[in-house]
Amino acid sequence: MLKRELKSEINKLWEKFWSNGISNPLTAIEQMSYLLFLKRMDVEDTKKLNATKYNYKLNYISLFKGHENCRWSKWSTMEGKEMFEHIDTVIFPFLKELGKSNSLYEIYMKDATFAIPNASLLVEAVSIINNIIDDSLCIGNTNYEVKGDIYEYLLSELNTAGKNGQFRTPRHIIKMITEIVDPQIGETICDPTCGTAGFLVSAYKYILLQNSSKDNIKYDEEGNPFDYIGDKLSENELMTLKTKMLYGSEFDQTMVRIALMNLIIHGIESPNIFRKNSLVDRNDYNENNIKYDVILANPPFKGTFDKKELSNRFTINTTKTELLFLELIYNLLKDGGRCAVIVPDGVLFGSSRAHKKIREILLNECGLEAVISMPSGVFKPYTGVSTAILYFIKGESTKKVWFYDMTDDGYTLDDKRNFIDGNGDMTDIVKSFRERYNQEENDRKSKHFFVPFEEIKKNNYDLSILKYKEIEYQISNFDKPEIILKRIKDLDNEIKKNFEELNVLMKK
């Protein structure tokens, strides 16, 4: 969605932080986020003030009233040392006090700290951000969509794994999952382990795109849509989308701040992101304990939890986080609510009582619609563990489950994850899923097929695709032994002949 030149500028920004000793990617992205956020505030505030000049009824009061020296356009032209001191002593205190009293912004930004180590890095970072935002590289204007894409691309370079098995979900996988779940305007959408808010941003953009006139959608050179604003939505619907539909939580405070800024940069001015450990904290995500229409998630896996700390809402006797989060998600969904969640393969066939119990819940108390098996390299370089996507609807009954064997996600499956076409099986998965009930054949040798519920039940609720996929082995035709033996003797004679010729040459 971004031009190559723009990506190059963003990569340059990352390199400047690395070379100046900020080796922790989370610290780097947090500091970049503050700068982008400050730049955006000045641009948007100026736009609103200009609009007020032509329409006094808007009655807009500048965020910078009484703090004009906090505008990006004012301090970004300062000399390096002066700018460095100004950011530390004036801008950051202003930034932390900017939110409304007791707002989520105020709560989570109060511990924000300025950690850029020297004036030269600050000056270079400010210069690069000016280029990124102001230049014509931004496809003509700096709308929310482009700025959101800039931020998403910044986050895509966040090559770090968190504690307790947290792995950042590749954005193209998130996009595919969102298209499968198909969230709609008015639905409440939650990610109980939201990280940088990738699923929530994806759901927001998907709803805007689905509600934009075709004439108002532009496409970049790679065919990706941008500049869509959801013009078919009413003012009330747009406000609902921005304020009452998207909810998330994360227990890492830095991640919470990054998620907040990610959503704000995408145009969601009052994000509902909470700092909490969902497995411990019984409080729900909104004031009325409303359950959700849609849950999109990639919970931490490979972790365990101390039983003493767990909330007593769980019925499954386990300390494995991937199983506990599945029960949590089930509890958070409304009846009829839809969920797509990424799980490690062990959830699909694990033999413990807890593993079987959670699969029974998914198949007996939900309509388990799909199991999409993903190749083991999708989460590299973090981990090579195999994973799958489960899609289910709470309260329905499972009659048959659609399996898909994804082998290609458009990137190499090694640690480098080099771009191939960025798509692989993705388009076919979404298309085949939407048309799954129209497929005439049910060939278990193909990439996708149905398996009846009763068959899965007989197999101890095993959801591994290898349990049901038929592998077609091809018999190779080998030469007869006497022919192979003759070929070896001929080669041996040829080698002896070459040695004899070499000896003759050496004696000359």
Textual characterization of the structure:
One of its GO terms (molecular function) is site-specific DNA-methyltransferase (adenine-specific) activity. Its EC number is 2.1.1.72. Keywords: Methyltransferase, Restriction system, S-adenosyl-L-methionine, Transferase. This is site-specific DNA-methyltransferase (adenine-specific). With 508 residues, the protein is an alpha/beta fold. Helices cover 43% and strands 12% of the residues. Strands 5-4-1-6-7-9-8-10-11 form a nine-stranded mixed sheet. A two-stranded antiparallel sheet has the order 2-3. Helix 1 runs antiparallel to helix 6, helix 2 crosses helix 6 and helix 12 packs parallel to helix 14. It is globular and about 95 Å long. The chain starts with a helix and ends with a helix. The relative contact order is 0.08. About 1% of the residues have low confidence.
Number of E-state strands: 11
Q: Enumerate how many helices there are, as a single number.
A: 17
Secondary-structure content class: alpha/beta
Low-confidence segments: 136-142
Strand content: 5-15%
Going across the major beta sheet, what is the strand order?
5-4-1-6-7-9-8-10-11
Mean of the pLDDT scores? 85
User: Could you give the distance between the termini?
Assistant: 70 Å
Assign an overall shape: globular
Largest sheet: 9 strands, mixed
Which radius of gyration do the C-alpha atoms yield? 28 Å
InterPro entries: D12N6_MeTrfase_N (IPR022749), DNA_Adenine_Mtase (IPR051537), DNA_methylase_A-5 (IPR003356), DNA_methylase_N6_adenine_CS (IPR002052), SAM-dependent_MTases_sf (IPR029063), T1MK-like_N_sf (IPR038333)
Organism: Methanococcus voltae
Pfam families: HsdM_N (PF12161), N6_Mtase (PF02384)
Domain N6 adenine-specific DNA methyltransferase N-terminal: 6-128
